[in-house]
Q: What sequence folds into this?
């Protein structure tokens, strides 16, 4: 069953990045996605990608 929450642009992004090695998800408010990646080369040549730097590094350690 499809939810029909993803726009054509979101579906196209998922299709375009199907073989990439990063995590991605759809933002539920608005028309966008987020991705988590290790290296800039992971996101090279993705059409329409707007990169915004939010933080340098976040490390979470379990006790």
A:
């Amino acid at each position: 069953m499809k939810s029909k929450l993803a726009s054509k642009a979101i579906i196209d992004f998922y299709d375009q990045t199907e073989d990439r090695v990063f995590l991605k998800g759809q933002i539920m408010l608005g028309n966008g996605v987020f991705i988590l990646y290790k290296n800039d080369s992971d996101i090279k040549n993705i059409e329409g990608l707007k990169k915004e730097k939010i933080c340098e590094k976040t490390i979470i350690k379990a006790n």
Residues 1-63 form one domain. Helices lie at 8-16. The first strand starts at residue 23 and ends at 27.
